[in-house]
Amino acid sequence: MSVSALHLSADFDPARPLRAGTRGSPLARQQTQLVVSALSASWPGFCWSEEVIETSGDRVRDRRLAEIGGKGLFTQEIDEALLAGRLDFAVHSLKDLETELPAGIVLACTLPRADPRDALVIDPRYLPEERPIAFPMLPVRARIGTASVRRQAQLLHARPDLRVGLIRGNVQTRLNRLEEGNFVATLLAVAGMERLGLMSQTDLSTETHLIHHARSGPRIVVLAPETMVPAAGQGIIAVTARADDRRTLSLLAAINDGTAWAAARAERAVLRALDGSCRTPIGAHARMLPNRELLLTAMAARAHGSFLIKRWRRGPAAEADALGADLGASLRRTCPEDIFS
Question: Which of 58, 79, 88, 96 is catalytic?
Fold first, then answer.
């Protein structure tokens, strides 16, 4: 639907500021700026204010999410402010949203997807030569830092000798831990590094990448989705709003990206079918093909990598929900029940 075709309520006033909720990390605030820029381009005169909200997930950094309540810890306080009317919309990384949103809150729109892949970020002291790097080239029994059971499971399935330690916090915090020598490597989302200016599309055209092009900096190796299946929704900025707020929903509909929206629906349908938690290693990645079909890849595993399965489905983007549900159900039938317990 075009912007001109949208029917806004009679009291619509583009000069009345909309209140945007966000977490306080540099990445979260940068993503909020991208949403606001898109709204300003679609709605001349658009005004807004920002409310930074510290979530429980931001406060507790020494334990895995699964141990303290799951993904909802990154959204609970923001959801409460939204439902109380203190916010008009909230900006999230889609992969941080729970599969089932709280009653009264809906996914309003998605922005165009950034690079959804994961990257292995390696301390150059352990790999001094500038050369292409893959899992087999990591040192024996190297200690890898991650809080993601999805990443852990795929790493250990490929390299059972690796040791995995907990590392949480924003991108810069994790890079600092790497520089301090706590870990040989960590894994980060390419989209986050791009949005923070740590990588560019030019960097991605080469096999070996250096943060800020500093030869002494960490080595970055971008991993194909077939090698490291991304988290569902990775690289997609999602905006939530109240289900009954027609004014805000109409404004946000104008900036929705159809390709990202279809991928989000398919990937989140996989999660819904598997009914996994933060303790369950699950990955899902949908890619739009030139004929408007989706190629959907999904993965489920044991956290320590002793079992891992990947499967694929292909189908019309218009049937994204059914495609994801079918693939998720197929994985569920094949996996041992202990994976989802």
Answer: 96
